[in-house]
Structure formats: structure tokens, C-alpha cells
Amino acid sequence: MAVAADWAGVISRHHDEIIKGWLQQLRDDGTLQTGRIKDAELEGECRRMLALVGPELAHGAAHSPLGGELRDMLVALSRSRALQGFTPSETSNFVLGLKLPLFGAIGVDYPDQADVIAGATIEATRKLDRLALLTIESFQKSREEVIIRQQREIAELSTPVVKLWDGILALPLIGTLDSERTQVVMENMLQSIVEHSAEIAIIDITGVPTVDTLVAQHLLKTVAAARLMGADCIVSGIRPQIAQTMVHLGVELNVISKASLADALALALQRIGKRVVDTAGATAAPVEFLR
């Protein structure tokens, strides 16, 4: 019967050497060169993980469920690394860097027992590889959460609702409209209609690269929602190429449209009983809105 390595004893006897070798391994990999983490902080993480991984190695059974505290620690560490800007490789190397110091320690304690060293090395490799995979999975999940949050923030920032005049709002759209962004557009516009008691909302699509059947459906949903709130909509910024595409596709917006935002604003002012008057004569450029 093969003798199993006493991982608890090995780690206890060589604790400081393992930590030192582990930190050196991480330094060689460039973890500290980025400046995103301090030496003392990294050492603290190493000591905490070694205290948790010791019982896992002593427990044996490389495919046994990972301990809750160790798993929680690595998940939290991976999320922190993702926010700090580390790469997946740098994150997983934190775990993998423990291998060589552990293998060195087991070799010192069992110098003439190749079977024990081989068995312990295979067991530790499987355990640490599983832990490294856990860090990559947690890192990727955290990065995806960050990307989704950033996309939502960008969508909100890219759909501002501007008050052009009392009772008139403008919603300039830039980029492609999809279902999620349409929802943000609709929520922002409806909230602004309520806040400003707006009668007319101008949706300017000058910055929308293409308008197909799907985009038209999204626009119609936004127009319909505004009408339910008591505001009429005017679509502006339909370029000649987009107009031709819409005709070829048979797309009908069923809403008043204007070529430019200026034309749409002039129509909106007319609808609420306002007019644009040149107060400086026919040769002067400034234009003033008179109430």
C-alpha cells in the first residue's frame, strides 16, 4: 500500500519557505510590476490561501468538493483582480505559482520516496489546477458583469433628453437601436415628458447609421409610448440613403418626419402657437424665439 504524503506536516515545517518561494514566483511572473497591488497585500493573500489550501491537500481526493471558505476567498480575489485590471493569466498564476514551492517542500521531506513524491505532486497539481480554473471562471464572470454595467451606463449617457423649449423635448439618438437600448430611450423620454409636461417630443435619428424594419419597430414603440403620455412625436434627421432604404423595405413610421432637427423644431413651435421672428432685419443672422 502506497504511503500518502503528510501535506499538513509538510506545510507546517516549510511554511515560510513556501511563502517566500511563492512570492518570488509571482514576482518573476510580473504580478508586482504592474503597480496594481502592493507586496504586503500580496503576501497577506498568499498566507491566507496557504492556510486554507493546506486542509484541502491533506484531505486528499483531488476531485472532492472545494471547501467553502477557500472557494469564497478565490472568488472574491478574482473579482477584485478583474476590477483592478489584471488579466485572466495573472489571476490564475496567483494559484499556479504555489505549485513549485509545494513540490520543492515535498521533495525535501521525502527525498528517497519517489512514489510518495509522484503521488503528492499529481494530487496537488489536480487540486491547484481546479482552483486556478475557479479563478478564471470567477474572473470572467466579473468582467462580464462590469461590461454589462458599462454598456448600460453608456446607453443611458448616449440617450439624453434635451429641453428645447417649454413643452418641447428633443431626443438625439446616436448609434444602433436594439431592444435593450430602446427600453432605456423609452424610459428616459417618458420620464422627461412627465417632468417637463411636454407636448411634443422630437426624436432625432441623424446619428443612427441605418434604419431597418427592426429599428423602425423600436421607433414606433417609443412613439406609441409617448402618445400614451399625451405627447406628439416628430422624427427628424432621416437622410436620403435611409429614406431610400425604408422605401425599399416598405417601412412606414406613421409619424410626421422632417429632414433636420431645425425643421422639426420650427414645426413644434408652430404647433404650440409660437413663431420664429428675425428681430435684426433681413440681413442679420441672429434668430430669437418670441413667446
Automatic annotation (TrEMBL):
Keywords: Phosphoprotein. Residues 158-272 form the STAS domain. The keyword Phosphoprotein applies. PROSITE patterns: STAS (PS50801). Gene3D superfamilies: STAS domain. It holds the Pfam family RsbRD_N. PANTHER family: RSBT ANTAGONIST PROTEIN RSBS-RELATED, RSBT CO-ANTAGONIST PROTEIN RSBRC. This is Anti-anti-sigma factor. It comes from Alsobacter soli.
